[in-house]
């Protein structure tokens, strides 16, 4: 039996942070440089909240960090138990929790992915069929990818199973798969993002992974292709009788945030998400 752990045992220590005051470009540059999608927000060393890629999605017209970041983001102490972190993750449907040392300073960040090794160690035998609870929205493989992107924006779901005309699972598609298919409008320059033309450390791929807001401002366009042209084919799947810890191990080893759940005939039944597994710790 895995021993009880505290947040400090699982968190990333001394995380990269966004500094107040700051602006959109500065934070995006930092996310790209360090390959992050979320980070704590601090002011003069004091923890103030959280900023994630999704916050830029929701506030495409804002430039100042102070108007974009999550001020009401739950924060934990490094000495809190992991079970309390699990509660915060699931009750708030969040994948990030900034960690304080108790005096207001930021000492770490905990993600839902950080919880997976602990779930594996606990050897939870419960079948995942008993913990599924989040919405599964399949997309038809002939759906235009522009429609797929709009579906993501409207539902707040960023990973979908893909099915054919007989509802057979043929793939999985995420927002990053769509970003890979994007075409950058000629009027967008690196300077628009505060980047130098000769700055090799930045990549357009990194920009696309962070900057969905440019889609919403019609500055980046998607080609006239279908979901089947962008999806990951033959995705790894699990059954509803797969144990919680086994599913967590699969996610952890493959850096997945979700797994399609199928029956004995490989018919799609549901989608399993990281937070479904995290919720078993409560």
Overall SS class: alpha/beta
Our count of domains comes out at 2
Helix content: 25-40%
Assembly type of the chains comes to single chain
Q: Output the strand order for the largest sheet.
A: 1-7-6-5
The CATH architecture assignment of the largest domain turns out to be Roll
* Run of helices and strands: HEEHEEHEHEEHEHEEHEHHEHEEHEEH
Taking pLDDT < 50 over at least 5 consecutive residues as the criterion, the unreliable ranges are 182-220
Proportion in β-strands? 15-25%
Number of helices: 12
Overview of the molecule:
This protein has 282 residues and is α/β, with parallel strands linked by helices. The protein has helices at 7-10, 24-34, 53-58, 82-92, 116-121, 145-155, 175-180, 204-210, 213-216, 227-230, 244-254, 274-278; strands at 12-13, 18-19, 38-43, 46-52, 76-77, 96-100, 106-111, 139-140, 159-163, 169-174, 183-184, 220-221, 232-233, 238-239, 258-262, 268-273. It has a four-stranded mixed sheet. It has a four-stranded mixed sheet with strand order 8-9-10-13. The chain has a three-stranded mixed sheet with strand order 2-3-4. Helix 2 crosses helix 8. The radius of gyration is 20 Å and the shape is flat. The relative contact order is 0.17.
Topology overview:
Blueprint: H1 7-10, E1 12-13, E2 18-19, H2 24-34, E3 38-43, E4 46-52, H3 53-58, E5 76-77, H4 82-92, E6 96-100, E7 106-111, H5 116-121, E8 139-140, H6 145-155, E9 159-163, E10 169-174, H7 175-180, E11 183-184, H8 204-210, H9 213-216, E12 220-221, H10 227-230, E13 232-233, E14 238-239, H11 244-254, E15 258-262, E16 268-273, H12 274-278
Parallel strand pairs: 2-3, 5-6, 8-9, 14-15
Antiparallel strand pairs: 1-7, 3-4, 6-7, 9-10, 10-13, 11-12, 15-16
Helix pairs in contact: 2-8
């Amino acid at each position: 039996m895995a021993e009880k752990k505290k947040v400090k045992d699982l968190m990333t220590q001394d995380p990269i942070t966004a500094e107040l005051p700051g602006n959109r470009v500065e934070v995006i540059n930092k996310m790209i440089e360090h390959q992050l999608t979320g980070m704590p927000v601090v002011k003069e060393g004091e923890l103030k909240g959280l900023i994630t890629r999704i916050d830029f999605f929701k506030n495409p017209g804002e430039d100042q960090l102070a108007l974009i970041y999550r001020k009401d983001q739950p924060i934990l102490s490094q000495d809190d138990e992991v079970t309390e972190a699990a509660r915060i993750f699931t009750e708030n449907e969040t994948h990030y929790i900034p960690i304080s040392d108790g005096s207001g300073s930021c000492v770490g960040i905990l993600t839902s992915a950080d919880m997976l090794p602990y779930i594996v160690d606990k050897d939870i035998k419960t079948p995942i069929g008993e913990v599924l609870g989040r919405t599964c929205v399949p997309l038809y493989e002939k759906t235009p990818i522009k429609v797929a992107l709009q579906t993501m924006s409207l539902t707040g779901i960023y990973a979908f199973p893909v099915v054919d005309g007989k509802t057979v699972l043929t793939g999985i598609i995420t927002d990053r798969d769509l970003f890979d298919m994007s075409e950058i409008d000629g009027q967008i320059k690196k300077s628009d993002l505060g980047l130098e033309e000769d700055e090799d450390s930045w990549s357009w791929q990194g920009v696309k992974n962070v900057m969905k807001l440019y889609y919403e401002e019609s500055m980046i366009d998607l080609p006239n292709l279908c979901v089947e042209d962008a999806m990951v084919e033959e995705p790894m799947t699990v059954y509803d009788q797969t144990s919680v810890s086994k599913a967590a191990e699969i996610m952890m080893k493959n850096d997945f945030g979700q797994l399609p759940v199928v029956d004995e005939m490989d018919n799609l039944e549901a989608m399993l998400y990281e937070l479904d597994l995290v919720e078993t710790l409560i």
